[in-house]
Every structure is written in structure tokens, then in C-alpha cells.
Give the backbone structure.
Amino acid sequence: MLRAVANGVTLTVRAQPGAKKTAITGVYGEGAAAQLKIAVQAPPVEGKANLALAAFLAETFGVPKNKVEIVSGELSRSKVFLLRGVSLGQAEGKIKEWKK
């Protein structure tokens, strides 16, 4: 789900657009194919869900919105985001906090 890259980390996400509220809801899949499952309040129309996801990830990982970029999966429920300026350790810590 998380992978260190030169300028930050990548995070694989399974989006559930059109939810009642935006929140992390669990893990989708297992092992190397695991994705962080996030319910998104915004509808999957005109990129609104992608923007809402990016804003939520920026807030969750404590970075500015311009440091979160969708790398792949723009039109899919399965997406990969680049979180610039976030270390693998920081990202793992945030996910552990959520799992408590």
C-alpha cells in the first residue's frame, strides 16, 4: 500500500465515491496488492472525488494540497497517489494511528 520513492511515498487507495462522509474505512485486498480503502463524500463526476481524496490525504498526512498528486487511476476506483515530502516512516505512523 505504501512505497518509498525519491521525493516522498506512493499510496495505493481504493476509493468509494458518493459516501455519507469522507473517511478511511479499512484495507482492500491483502499483501502487496493491499489498498487503503477511503469513502469519499464527493460524487465521481468531473474529478470531484479525486480532488476530495487528494484534499483528505493532504489533511491526513499533514502536507499542503499541492504536495498530493494522483499518479495513476484517475478514472478508476483503484488509485495511486504521490505524497511529496512524506517519509515512509511518517506515512506508516499515520496509518498505524488510524488502525488503533
The domain at 2-99 is CATH 3.30.1200.10 (Conserved Hypothetical Protein Mth637; Chain: A;).
